[in-house]
Design goal:
- With 256 residues, this protein is of the alpha/beta class.
- The chain has 2 domains: 126 residues, Rossmann fold; 117 residues, no CATH class.
- Helices cover 60% and strands 9% of the residues.
- It is built from 12 helices and 4 strands.
- Helix 2 crosses helix 9, helix 4 runs antiparallel to helix 5 and helix 6 crosses helix 7.
- The two termini are 20 Å apart.
Length: 256
């Protein structure tokens, strides 16, 4: 289901995550870092983590986003058509982006029967590279799970209602067409510590604190289990203190 890195403070867990990222990039895989601190809704920070990670620059100076779009075009054998479309629509940024969205989605539909499920995510992914500020802003919001008024997005190629979990599924799917992904969650200690503090407060009779503590752990545990089901061609690595993982794992797996 994934890997857990446990060890005392200062043991090098974060450094190891950084080394894993370097090696993943060297092997042309994808690296995604999730920040779940202050978790209130599991899928929103996961969608944001995917979006933020795609915009991180690798050792060659290119972003993971640049590599992804380039590799998808190569996979679909439309890289020359992309260049021709860019030349034909030079100076007409909005028209160019609409044409590229159609080209990528049409080509993916021909190659993969399931591609239609993720067409809006593909649309947002292509628009994210636009020089048009409005296109880029809508794409950035969409890839965080936001919805927009139909009149604002229909002409750009969006078709369905959006949600963070749909974004996560769509991005994981399109990334899996190219290479595996390592999803890292560097230290869940702060989250579990917060729930423990609330639980301790509940020992004094605070039922509300007890419920809040349970909600935090439930949300994280269920989210991680669901992520395992929804991600494609990916492995999750979690780093934390052993004192954090032992009670958390006991809760998740029912070994109380």
């Amino acid at each position: 289901m994934g890997r857990v890195i446990v060890g005392p403070k200062g043991f090098g867990k974060t450094h190891l995550i950084g080394e894993l990222r370097r090696q993943v990039w060297e092997r042309e895989g994808w690296f995604v870092l999730l920040d779940l601190i202050g978790i209130k809704d599991f899928w929103s920070p996961v969608a944001l983590g995917l979006l933020t990670s795609l915009q991180v620059r690798m050792a060659d100076g290119k972003t993971q986003y640049d590599r992804l779009v380039f590799r998808v075009a190569k996979l679909l054998e439309i890289d020359e058509e992309v260049t021709a479309t860019a030349d034909r629509c030079r100076g007409q940024q909005r028209i160019l982006m609409v044409e590229l969205v159609r080209l990528f989605n049409r080509s993916l539909d021909r190659k993969y029967p399931e591609a239609n499920q993720h067409s809006d995510v593909v649309t947002a992914l292509i628009l994210l590279g636009s020089d048009d500020l409005d296109c880029r802003s809508i794409a950035h919001g969409w890839l965080q799970g936001m919805n927009f008024d139909d009149e604002d997005i229909r002409e750009l190629g969006f078709k369905k209602e959006n949600s963070p979990i749909k974004v996560v599924q769509g991005l994981s799917w399109i990334m899996s067409r190219i290479a595996p992904t390592l999803i890292a969650i560097d230290q869940i200690d702060a989250i579990v510590t917060a729930s423990n503090s609330l639980a301790d407060a509940a020992d004094g009779g605070g039922m509300q604190e007890q419920r809040q503590a349970q909600v935090i752990v439930d949300l994280l545990a269920q989210g991680l289990m669901d992520l395992h089901e929804y991600k494609r061609r990916a492995v999750t690595v979690i780093s934390c203190l052993e004192a954090t993982w032992t009670p958390f794992a006991a809760f998740v797996f029912g070994d109380k």
